[in-house]
Write a structure and sequence with these properties.
The structure holds 2 protein chains of 2 kinds. Chain A is built from 7 helices and 10 strands. Chain A is of the alpha/beta class. The two termini of chain A are about 25 Å apart. The chains are: A alpha/beta, B alpha+beta.
Chain lengths: ~240, ~475
């Protein structure tokens, strides 16, 4: 199914053309994504929503270049990623995409500072710059005091703040967040959403979420509704 | 790389018990290899020292003596041996390498004790030597792994009739009481009396001995043996030996057969009144590492002087040395293999569990932009680090244990030796053993981490992130 998601005059941050993803479970083939075509605009708070098992996480994985489509064309930040080698697509992720996970996924043996600094090491940033940007980013998420604490010494909200800082620190064009508020209480979830919104405005980054959290959806600029692996609805809530 | 090392080290600390168990396996392996390795090296050094004290590093023979000389020892003797010794000792290249250059005469014969009605006789292997040179050779202790003997005053340069018999020779020939030997039973009465003819032979030998040497060694209070052998011309010859004492030999066949005597007496027995020769010239070097150099130079020297001589080292003269060396090397290799396998499985097990526990972390890192190689490297560093920590701890333990053993004043009797020598393990003098063990174990631990590391690197990112 194809809906009108074409943004004339603007380069979308993500462009999918007839993208399908099929998994094999034993002899059974399960189609998680069924030929979706869509454009996601840059510099927006975009949400992929749908019930559990609708294929939103699979779609997010394909956009995040951590999974390959069974068919179709994926273009992220202007790069056709389907043609890239594993190392090239890994380097592409390191430069252009930041991830925020539902379970925070911080490296448990590294401090908050080191977790945030890690992506900068991957893009070869010099030491002084790494230090400056890490400190700035930790300050931006309000964790200056917790810089030397390890994840097990942080609360859920603080962990997600570190994860946000980690995703933003390298200046990624695209931040992907898979159910970022699912493991947080309502109040903390709201503060995290506000933080991400502020970060999106401040750093002019594109955020794409997969969620079914109404609280998060209320902040969306664009909502892409997925059901049974198909795009069933596109709603642009705020004009760019 | 620094961050990878930091993550590896912290993960080792994070799983303290598991890391400690794996590190302990590596440490025990290192400890076993180092202590056994240093003991083996000490054993070789001790055995080496004993042999070099007895027969020197190199022996010069007439060409063919080593292979065929036993059938015709006098035919393969070295004539004008003092000149040959002078050529060796005065050679500018050899001189600084030498410790002792001494002639030796081997012989076989029959020794009889016909005094005090003993009437016993047996074949013997004779060694003729210069007592002063023997004393100097027995001072050699390059590795500190042997016993330094005080001068043996029982043999004398001034009295060439004196000799020492193996303890077995003394027992068989009924010299125990005369030599005041402990734990040495006197022979029981012979079950059958020796025939009259044999008795007359004894009398003949005794008489021959008396006529050959007169009474030069009478009156020194020592028991006397009559030694009979064939001279170079094939005629029977007899000398009288004053037995100054007994000496133990490590092997029973040596103990029961060897008689050590002054070179002059041996020469008198073998050559009679003809030219005095020797069967070999033994060379003891200051340092064992010069064996090849000295041997090469000796061959050059003999060729330049048209001397029909060959050189054999102590290993060739004593094949048991090489066999023992091979045996212990084989045991060491076997133990190393076993330890290597234990370490391999311990590290594989630990790293596999680490990979399983950290699958989500691996997925996260890959999503963030860490290449497959980066993930592989991460786990390889952890394997190497566990190996390095374990091997280092094992090395420290080995140093402590070796120091305790060395300070305990333990002694032991090495093969072919009969007197105890101090057990002094040398660990610090073996950098190749220390480094080899450490590097080997770290390499095994790193290699063992390769399989789980590869598995981690090949994990699909999505599957890794989904892992619970």
């Amino acid at each position: 199914m194809s809906l009108d998601t074409n943004y004339e005059g603007r380069n979308p941050v993500v462009r999918l053309e007839r993208v399908a993803k099929t998994y094999k479970i034993g002899k059974l083939e399960v189609a998680a994504v069924k030929g979706i075509t869509l454009d996601i605009p840059a510099h927006r708070f975009s949400m992929i929503v749908g019930p559990s098992g609708s294929g939103k996480s699979t779609l997010l994985n394909l956009i995040g270049c951590i999974d390959k489509p069974s068919s179709g064309h994926v273009e992220v930040c202007g790069e056709s990623v389907g043609e890239l080698s594993d190392n090239a697509v890994t380097d592409f992720r390191a430069r252009n995409i930041g991830f925020i996970f539902q379970s925070f996924n911080l490296v448990p043996v590294l401090t908050a500072h080191e977790n945030v600094e890690y992506p900068l090491l991957l893009v070869g940033a010099p030491l002084a710059e790494r230090r400056r940007r890490t400190i700035e980013m930790l300050a931006a998420v309000g964790l200056t005091e917790q810089a030397n604490q390890r994840p097990n010494e942080l609360s859920g909200g603080q962990k997600q703040r570190v994860a946000i800082a980690r995703a933003l620190v390298k200046g990624a064009q695209l931040i992907l967040a898979d159910e970022p508020t699912a493991n947080l209480d309502t109040q903390t979830g709201a503060s995290i959403i506000n933080l991400m919104r502020q970060a999106q405005n401040k750093f002019n980054t594109s955020f794409i979420f997969s969620t079914h959290d109404p609280q998060l959806m209320s902040h969306a600029d664009e909502i892409f509704s997925i059901r049974d692996g198909e795009l069933v609805k596109h709603e642009a809530r705020r004009s760019t | 790389m620094i961050l990878l090392g930091k993550i590896a080290f912290r993960n080792i600390l994070r799983n303290r018990r598991r890391s400690a168990m794996t590190g302990a396996a590596v440490a025990v392996g290192a400890l076993a290899l180092l202590v056994f390795g240093s003991f083996t090296t000490y054993l070789f050094a001790s055995f080496h020292t004993t042999l070099v004290q007895q027969i020197g590093h190199l022996t010069v023979y007439r060409q063919g003596y080593f292979l065929f000389g036993a059938g015709n020892p006098t035919g393969y003797s070295i004539g004008d041996y003092e000149k040959v010794m002078g050529t060796i000792s005065n050679d500018p290249a050899l001189h600084p390498l030498l410790n002792v250059v001494t002639p030796t005469q081997s012989l076989v014969g029959i020794a009889g004790n016909f005094e005090s009605g003993n009437d016993t006789a047996k074949t013997f292997l004779g060694i003729g030597l210069l007592p002063a040179d023997r004393d100097r050779m027995r001072q050699w202790n390059e590795f500190g792994a042997g016993r330094v003997y005080p001068p043996d005053l029982r043999l004398s340069e001034d009295d060439d009739t004196r000799g020492l018999v193996g303890r077995g020779v003394a027992r068989i020939l009924g010299l125990c009481a005369a030599l005041k030997m402990e734990d040495c039973p006197s022979p029981p009465p012979s079950p059958t009396q020796i025939a009259d003819s044999a008795g007359s032979l004894d009398a003949d030998i005794a008489g021959l001995s008396q006529s050959e040497i007169g009474s030069s060694n009478e009156g020194n209070g020592m028991p006397r043996l009559d030694l009979i052998s064939a001279t170079a011309s094939g005629a029977p010859n007899v000398v009288s030996l004053s037995v100054a004492g007994s000496e133990p030999w490590g092997a029973k066949e040596n103990d029961d057969n060897i008689i050590t005597m002054h070179l002059k007496l041996a020469q008198q027995l073998v050559y009679g009144r003809s030219e005095r020769k020797v069967t070999g010239i033994e060379i003891q070097l200051a340092r064992s590492e010069d064996i090849d150099l000295a041997r090469h130079r000796l061959v050059e020297l003999f060729k330049a002087n048209n001397l029909d001589l060959e050189v054999r080292d102590f290993g060739e003269r004593t094949p048991f040395f090489g066999q023992a060396l091979s045996l212990f090397r084989s045991i060491f290799v076997f133990i190393s293999l076993i330890i290597g396998i234990v370490v391999l499985f311990a590290v594989v097990n630990t790293m596999t569990m680490n990979v399983m526990e950290r699958t989500t972390e691996i997925g996260t890192l890959r999503a963030m932009g860490v290449r497959r190689h980066g993930v592989r490297l991460q786990f390889l560093i952890e394997g190497a680090m566990v190996g390095a920590l374990g091997a280092s701890f094992g090395l420290i333990c080995a140093v402590v244990i070796v120091t305790l053993i060395n300070q305990a004043g333990l002694t032991w009797i090495p093969p072919t030796n009969v007197t105890p020598v101090p057990l002094l393990l040398d660990l610090f003098g073996q950098p190749e053993l220390l480094l080899g063990t450490w590097i080997g174990l770290v390499a095994v631990a790193t290699g063992a981490a390769l399989v789980p590391a590869n598995r981690a690197a090949k994990l699909p990112v999505v599957d890794a992130l989904r892992h619970v």
